[in-house]
Amino acid sequence: MKEFPDVIAWSIPAFLLLIVLERVSYLLHRDDGEVGYSAADTATSLAMGLGSVGADLLWKIPIAAAYALLYALTPLRVVEVWWTWPLILVAQDFFYYWSHRGHHVVRILWATHVVHHSSERFNLSTALRQPWTSVAGWLFYVPLVLAGVHPAVVAFCGSVNLLYQFWIHTERIDRMPRWFEAVFNTPSHHRVHHASQGGYLDRNFGGILIVWDRLFGTFAPERERCVYGLTTNIATHNPLRVAFHEYVAIARDVRAAMSWRHRAGHLLRSPGWHPDPGDGS
């Protein structure tokens, strides 16, 4: 059994230290328009992060079992040597892009991911606002396992991807050098992703690399000041409501639906979808 260090767990002290330093930087100086921190919002983000650590331990059991079965069935094997690691990480980031995009356009997946977008602030603590549920995100990485990448390597690359994304949750960094902005995900690109304005919605899905968005037509540059949160904010700091409010809304819509086609639509179509009032089929 391959084992790799839990880079997220090892990084938690650094996360907390950097959050404190960023908070202090706001006390010393805040630019016009920056939303900064609030105690209640930060506490909610930390609670969601702590809860996700425990939830992940449960979700990883069936996912690891499914990956192990698929890995045992495929005849392919990718050997982890110095030159295959960058290729595997790029491949993982490619599938992360499609997973992330899918979590924005399929409502039952959005019910998981909406947690991360529920804050109306954008700072390093927002990076820790993670979901407690996992519906089908693991399916997006099945091609990697079938291609012969060991499941533990897939999981490790996913942790590296998540670790990279911590630092891009900030308003304290304006722009990186132009070459860096062209290739990598940055705070500027990710502010757009967390914004709720119409022109910014469902943009910049990349994890480490922004090139996927440029290739597949989902890139948007940061031009106007971002307004963070959801198109309809949930106005709560209760971790349970943050974690499950969209599942409750889906259940309500499914229960009220007039047909099985509409019920499927509430699960599988976009988060804003509603059936035509005149369509009772």
Describe what you observe in this structure.
With 281 residues, the chain is mainly alpha-helical. The model has no long low-confidence stretch (mean pLDDT 95). It is globular. The protein has helices spanning 7-28, 39-73, 84-105, 107-113, 142-146, 151-166, 178-183, 187-194, 211-216, 239-256, 260-268. It has one domain (7-268). The N and C termini lie far apart (52 Å). It contains 11 helices and no strands. The longest helix has 35 residues, at 39-73. It holds the Pfam family FA_hydroxylase. The chain crosses the membrane at residues 7-28, 57-74, 81-99, 138-168.
The biggest beta sheet is recorded as: none
Per DSSP, the total helix count is: 11
Q: Residue ranges: pLDDT <50 for 5 or more in a row? A: none
- Give the amount of beta strand, in percent: under 5%
- Helical fraction equals 40-55%
Q: How many E strands?
A: 0
* Average pLDDT score: 95
Rg = 19 Å
Cα separation of the termini = 52 Å
Shape category: globular
Helix/strand/pairing category: mainly alpha
What is the domain total for the residues?
1
Order of helices and strands: HHHHHHHHHHH
GO molecular function, one term: glyceryl-ether monooxygenase activity
Subcellular location: Endomembrane system
Membrane topology: Multi-pass membrane protein
InterPro entries: Fatty_acid_hydroxylase, Sterol_desaturase/TMEM195
